[in-house]
Design brief:
By secondary structure, the protein is an alpha/beta fold. Helices cover about 50% and strands about 10% of the residues. The chain has a single domain, classed as Glycogen Phosphorylase B (Rossmann fold), CATH 3.40.50.2000. The protein has a 5-stranded parallel sheet with strand order 3-2-1-4-5, with helices on both faces. The protein is elongated.
């Protein structure tokens, strides 16, 4: 399971790191965490920043802050997510992922404790419905061609307003 919160900085990074590592152990999971690589230990690989689109396909599940980019990358990889939103649109993405069946209920970061994280890690990894739903979403996203569709809409609106269109080439 990958656990990382992107550019979000917890108020007490050392306490958060301890909670993450201990929750992974209590849940009986191996983890890849965003931390100093020198702090790797048995069954926990700590890594610096790495391209999520290359890492996520190799994970069983993703725990993250719910930024739009991280959420999209996890969904495209077909991996269920537990989102721990800090603020803003992260709360929306957390709720949406859960509504789509791609992960358990959000765990707001301010409620992250050893107990809550361990419980949600169990939910995230032991309910195959999350994996099934996320794989279906990944398939739909791969076949959506969203940029092309958006360009067609912009061109259609532009034509009605007399504006120039968007070049699709």
């Amino acid at each position: 399971v990958y656990i990382g919160f992107g550019s979000m900085k917890p108020p007490d990074p050392q306490a958060t790191d301890h909670v993450i590592r201990t929750a992974l152990k209590h849940a009986g999971l191996r983890g890849v965490i965003a931390a100093d690589p020198a702090t790797s230990e048995r069954n926990i690989l700590a890594i610096n920043d790495t391209p999520h689109d290359q890492l996520f396909p190799h994970m069983a599940a993703i725990v993250h802050h719910g930024g739009a980019g991280t959420t999209a990358t996890a969904l495209r990889a077909g991996k269920p997510s537990l989102i721990c939103p800090f603020f803003g649109d992260q709360t929306y993405w957390a709720s949406r992922v859960h509504q789509l069946g791609a992960g358990p209920p959000p765990l707001p970061f301010r409620q992250l404790t050893l107990s809550t994280l361990t419980q949600r890690l169990h939910q995230l990894t032991q309910h195959p419905t999350y994996t099934t739903a996320t794989r279906q979403l990944a398939h739909a996203l791969r076949n959506e061609h969203g940029v092309t569709h958006a360009c067609h809409i912009i061109n259609r609106v532009g034509e009605t307003k007399g504006a120039t269109g968007v070049d699709l080439s």
